[in-house]
Design goal:
about 290 residues; alpha/beta; Rossmann fold; 6-stranded mixed beta sheet; about 30% helix; globular; binds adenosine-5'-triphosphate; nucleotide-binding; ABC_Transporter_VariousFunc; ABC transporter ATP-binding protein
Length: about 290
């Protein structure tokens, strides 16, 4: 596991929006999912990594190269899929493939053909005439077939139907198995997060609020239905929510349970949280500062 992308104290001021300072590393072999509300800065961060948007302070390195430097060789090792492909409307999928493939030394034609076929993408239709979901499917085929080391995907499945999303998630997992790879994607989709993420990163208002190992994060959250009401004077370790003083939600299940046991406070049921509940609490935490 190597750090392939380093963001060092990066800052940017854009009118009334301030990004950073962001300090962050992305490691090979891992799928990183960035979660954050609309306008939190996810797309801007991706564009900064690709040197498409400048920054005022700090630096970003991809494979040790400063992205703002003269040498752009690193760009051949990273495939970026923006939320919307601009300037493609008049081209068919096949024409786009013919334009893009020569730019990437590892272009894998059979991978492109397989993905396009398995997602039923019509390659003879103009991009602008495709539905948004099919445009995204074509974009996935054009991106994965570059067979780069890194994939940087900005909400890649947001317009897809459920079976397509599921197939694309399988494609990402299969792609990771092609060698030492790194995927960074932004998503609002609970399924993407649950199935794909090794790491979860939370953003709001241009700030990064932590990078978590997904399984550790999810298992740290638990809710307890207590046998009796808990005095409002007592707060359980990691407590982030309660209802009727009987249902307590904690983000430090281990310490909360130890507290309940040592104080002989019984519970009727303890339950792990669903991914969407964890995400909701994390988003509330970011805005409300509970964590
Ligand atoms: N070129 C620009 N000039 C000025 N402000 C910008 C520019 N691009 C983005 N912004 C602002 O930066 C903020 C972050 O936008 P960004 O698109 O990065 O958010 P996001 O997290 O990707 O949102 P979404 O989930 O809606 O795609 C927003 O307030 C946006 O208005």
């Amino acid at each position: 596991m190597e750090s392939w992308i380093k963001v060092n104290q990066m800052e940017k001021n854009m009118n009334d929006f301030k990004m950073g300072p962001i300090e962050l590393e992305f490691e090979s072999g891992m799928i990183h999912v960035i979660v954050g509300g609309n306008g939190s800065g996810k797309s801007t961060l991706f564009k900064q990594i690709m040197n498409l948007v400048t920054f005022d302070a700090g630096s970003i390195e991809v494979f040790g190269s400063n992205v703002a430097g003269e040498d752009e060789g690193w760009k051949k090792r990273i495939a970026y899929q923006p939320q919307t492909l601009v300037g493609c409307d008049e081209f068919t999928g096949r024409q786009l493939m013919q334009l893009i493939s020569p730019l990437y030394p590892n272009w894998n034609q059979s991978l492109f053909d397989d993905i396009a076929r398995s997602l039923s993408v019509p390659l003879n239709k103009k991009f602008g005439k495709l539905s948004q979901g099919v445009q995204q499917k074509l974009a996935i085929a054009l991106t994965l077939a570059r067979d780069t080391d890194i994939l940087l995907l900005d909400e890649p499945t947001s317009h897809m139907d459920i079976p397509a999303k599921s197939r694309v998630m399988d494609l990402f997992v299969e792609w990771m198995e092609r060698g030492e790879k790194l995927i960074i994607l932004s998503s609002h989709q609970t399924e993407d997060i649950r199935k794909l993420a090794d790491y979860l990163l939370f953003m709001s208002n241009g700030k990064l609020h932590g990078k978590f190992v997904k399984d550790e994060l999810v298992s740290s959250f638990k809710k307890y239905w207590l046998e009796k009401e808990l005095s409002s004077q007592i707060k359980l370790p990691g407590e982030i929510d309660r209802k009727n003083n009987r249902l307590i939600v904690t983000n430090d299940a281990e310490k909360a349970e130890a507290y309940l046991l040592s104080h002989k406070i019984g519970w009727i049921e303890a339950e792990s949280l669903e991914m969407d509940e964890v995400i909701s609490y994390m988003v509330v935490n970011k805005n409300g500062g509970v964590l």
